Amino acid sequence: MDKVSTGITALDQILDGGLPRGSTILLVGRPGSGKTILAHQMMFENANAEDRVLYLTTLSEPQIKIMKFQQGFSFYDVSKVQKNVIYKDLGGVLRKQGSLQTMKLIDTFLKEYQPTLVFVDTIKAIADIIPDTMDFREFILELSVRLTTWACTTVLLGEYSEQDIEIRPESAIADGIIYLYGTEEKRQQKRYLRVLKMRGTKHYNGEAVFKISKAGISVFPRLSPMVLKQDYIQYSQRVSTGVAKLDELMEGGIPQGSTTLITGPSGSGKTMVALSFALEGIRSGVKTVFFSFEENPAQIINNFKQIGNDIQPYIDQGLLHIIYVSPIELDVDEHVYQVQELVREIGAQRLIIDSISSFEIGMSDKVKYTDYIWALTDYYKAQGITVLLTHEMHNTGTIEPMTKHGVSFVADNLLLLTYQEHEISLKRYIRVVKMRGSHHSTELKELIIDRNGLSIG
Predict the structure, then answer these.
(1) What is the DSSP secondary structure assignment for residue 81, as one 8-state letter?
(2) E strands along 371-424, which residues?
(3) Whether 385 contacts 343, CB under 8 Å
(4) Which of 151, 283, 322, 415 has the highest CB neighbour count under 10 A?
């Protein structure tokens, strides 16, 4: 099936390539949900010398206002207006002469411009003019048939809630339904997109976060808690943690392509172990992404300097990428997607996240939090990428519980860090709690952090 791009790569992925060519799509949501912006982004993506786009307004915003406000986005190309992107109004005829003459006017536009993509903004205005449900259904059906006959892909915009969609006649006639909605929160509004229906495609279900910026709409698909593929890459090779005696406890180091979780209280040395692992990789030429919620890049660079290492040259060479996001502004879907894209683009083989406790802060649904961590690790395991996660726990001496919400089960390897008071000093300790499919020592060993870095006492 041929597809029409939405102009948004991630949305095309959700739709399994884009909108089916020749289909009729409902783009719905409450006022202010982003329908008009998404419609225009699709228009200017597809409009060219061979493919014209027709935008039909009804009784919603005047065309001049729509064009004025859309010009603020970078995708808006003035040179295409009324040449490749044609704006026409149905409102006057619809209001004064009714649906029959409106259909004739649409026929006139189709013959004159022969568009490949048609938008109607909004279909709800036509529904208000045709109060009889059966008459409106016949109008929508006839419109869909005529546009399909002209080989047009049609997008009908409508101000409907999710409850309205279930009872609307156009929902049954449409080949696809894309629903935009949002939630009002004290810090910021969060916007979501869901594909409720799309005939003939294997689209992704569930909500995807989207944001509106000067560039238009950016979509961040949810990290699905499902196995991405079954042919997991099997590695027998071990990778060093950067601490020789810790490698010995793990009988050679961390299995390549596995996920390691380091858990312990604040100040127990989790970040330092993670930094040691990163340093060992970049020294060997392994591209590494260090995703921090705790410290900004300047602090991380300074931490390396404290143990006698300057990592700036590795950053300049593109071997190490440090990403910092404040947990207060964290949107999990967005940043997980961005990290996935970065890892893929640079060909990274190691990913470090410090710490996943910030995922928990950023997500109110704790079941979803567990699903995300599971899907995150499964995704990279399928790519053969070695992942190291840190997690903060609040008990200092006991093994259980090491993590909340059952997160520890997702890790292949689990390192427990603790500390204890010895007279007037404080000593840190490390223990290898588990390593799937591998023998390892379970002894409690002292973890020493000094100017020379990390070592095992």
Answers:
(1) B
(2) 386-392, 413-422
(3) yes
(4) 415
Distance CA 351, CA 234 (A): 18
Rounded Cα distance, 245 and 33, in Å: 56
The pLDDT tens digits for 173-215 are 899 999 999 876 655 678 999 999 999 888 888 888 899 999 9
Instruction: Show the tokens assigned to 155.
Output: 């997008």
- Please tell me the pTM assigned to this model: 0.77
d(CA 305, CA 296): 15
State how beta strands 320-324 and 386-392 pair: unpaired
d(CA 38, CA 25): 13
Q: How many CA atoms lie within 13 A of 394 on its CB side?
A: 2
Beta bridge partners of 320: 288
The CA-CA-CA angle for residues 297, 303, 308, to 5°, reads: 130
Residue 54, beta-bridge partner list? 86, 118
Two tokens, residue 339: 């990290």
CA distance 266 to 260: 18
Q: Give the whole-angstrom CA distance, residue 282 versus residue 278.
A: 6
* Spatial distance between the Cα atoms of 43 and 29, rounded to a whole number of angstroms: 19
Q: CB neighbours of 55 closer than 8 A, spacing ≥ 6?
A: 39, 43, 85, 86, 87, 88, 118, 119, 121
Q: Using one digit for the tens of pLDDT, what is the confidence trace for 389-438?
A: 998 886 544 444 455 555 667 788 999 999 888 777 889 999 999 998 88
Distance CA 120, CA 140 (A): 11
22: nearest Cα among 180, 169, 200, 165:
200
Q: What angle do CA 4, 6, 11 make, to 5 degrees?
A: 115
Coil, strand or helix at 108: helix
**Cα(360)–Cα(370) distance, rounded to whole angstroms?**
9
